[in-house]
């Protein structure tokens, strides 16, 4: 019999095409670019065999209960899975697909772009040109921080962290530090030095957060953390907003404890337009666009569609999350 699938948002047509051509499921879709209302999500998943969701959908006990015992597979259009209640999913024997690897290059690229934009004050410069603040070439105006000769610290040298390190090294980075649960043999390629977190934080000119959000990393970047950073250091986060204590970051930025910060992720998302961080010239905030290239999003949609189909049919998934 034909299986039922619910998709929580419009996704690139590459993914929709795969699902319709497979002919194994009947797809219903929250046909919008905006978040599915909770009530519609609960209604949409009822009796579903498959759920294709996004990182902005909270997949908790209530959603799993609403889906009921038919549910075989959840396919998320993301590499992160902190939005899903993994213990509850495991308990119910539901398989999970995700999209690692295919977004690594795009996300590393965005991280480098954000790092340079923040450290070299591009958004401030753009505003000055538009508002008439550019009066002449001034030796002391809009100076920032460069990578040449610097020490970069990557917190979480996983797939994306490593891709960031590979891209930053050619800018003349002198030392590449990293921290995490274990030393990585592949770090040799970027001459990465495995150091305790405290050492990374106090010795780095650029601190780049690229770790998963877990109970251990939640709130990791707090008051103590920012106090240890150099006054001239740049803080970059493209992982998850909840790794950072934003009140503490605001204090560090407004008091000059650290030089500047670039964030592609915040708590909450979207960040309210009246949030204190948005009043600061030394904070650059992007709307979670790490993987946002046309081709990457298309490939993510294909992969999540193929993960979903494999989950429905009980075959090997191209990218199954083992947990
Ligand atoms: C993006 O943040 C993702 O998890 O894919
Ligand atoms: C900058 O444009 C310079 O000529 O130094």
Automatic annotation (TrEMBL):
The record's keywords, sorted A to Z, are: Oxidoreductase
Q: Which residues form the D-isomer specific 2-hydroxyacid dehydrogenase catalytic domain?
A: 5-320
Q: Can you give the residue ranges of the D-isomer specific 2-hydroxyacid dehydrogenase NAD-binding domain?
A: 112-290
GO CC annotations? cytosol
Q: Which Pfam families match?
A: 2-Hacid_dh (PF00389), 2-Hacid_dh_C (PF02826)
Q: Which GO terms describe its molecular function?
A: glyoxylate reductase (NADPH) activity; hydroxypyruvate reductase (NADH) activity; NAD binding
* Oxidoreductase keyword on record: yes
InterPro entries given in the database record: D-isomer_2-hydroxyacid_DH, D-isomer_2_OHA_DH_cat_dom, D-isomer_DH_CS, D-isomer_DH_NAD-bd, NAD(P)-bd_dom_sf
Which family does this protein fall into? Belongs to the D-isomer specific 2-hydroxyacid dehydrogenase family.
This protein is called Glyoxylate reductase/hydroxypyruvate reductase
Q: Organism, per UniProt?
A: Salmo trutta
């Amino acid at each position: 019999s034909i299986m039922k699938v619910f998709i929580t948002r419009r996704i690139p047509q590459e993914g929709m095409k795969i699902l319709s051509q497979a002919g194994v499921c009947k797809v219903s879709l929250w046909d919008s670019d905006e978040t599915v209302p909770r009530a519609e999500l609960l209604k949409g998943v009822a009796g579903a065999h498959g759920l294709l969701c996004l990182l902005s959908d909270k997949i908790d006990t209530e959603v799993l209960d609403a889906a009921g015992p038919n549910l075989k597979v959840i396919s998320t259009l993301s590499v992160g899975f902190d939005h899903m209640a993994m213990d509850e999913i495991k308990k119910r024997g539901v398989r999970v697909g995700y999209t690692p690897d295919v977004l690594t290059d795009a996300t590393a690229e965005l991280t480098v772009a954000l790092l340079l934009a923040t450290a070299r004050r591009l958004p401030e410069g753009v505003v000055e040109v538009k508002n008439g603040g550019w009066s002449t070439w001034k030796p002391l105006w809009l100076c920032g921080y460069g990578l040449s000769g610097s020490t970069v610290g990557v917190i979480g040298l996983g797939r994306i962290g490593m891709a960031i390190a590979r891209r930053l090294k050619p800018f003349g980075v002198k030392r590449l530090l990293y921290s995490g649960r274990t030393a990585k043999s592949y770090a040799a390629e970027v001459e990465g030095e495995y150091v305790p977190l405290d050492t990374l934080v106090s010795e780095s000119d650029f601190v780049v957060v690229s770790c998963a959000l877990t109970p251990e990393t939640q709130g990791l970047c707090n008051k103590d953390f920012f106090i240890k950073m150099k006054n001239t250091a740049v803080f970059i986060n493209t992982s998850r907003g909840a790794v950072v204590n934003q009140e503490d970051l605001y204090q560090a930025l407004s008091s000059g404890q650290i030089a500047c910060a670039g964030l592609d992720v915040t708590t909450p998302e979207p960040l309210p337009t009246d949030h204190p961080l948005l009043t600061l010239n030394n904070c650059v905030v992007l709307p979670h666009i790490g993987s946002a290239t046309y081709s990457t999003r298309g490939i993510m949609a294909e992969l999540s569609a193929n993960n979903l189909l494999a989950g429905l049919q009980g075959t090997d998934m191209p990218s199954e999350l083992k947990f």
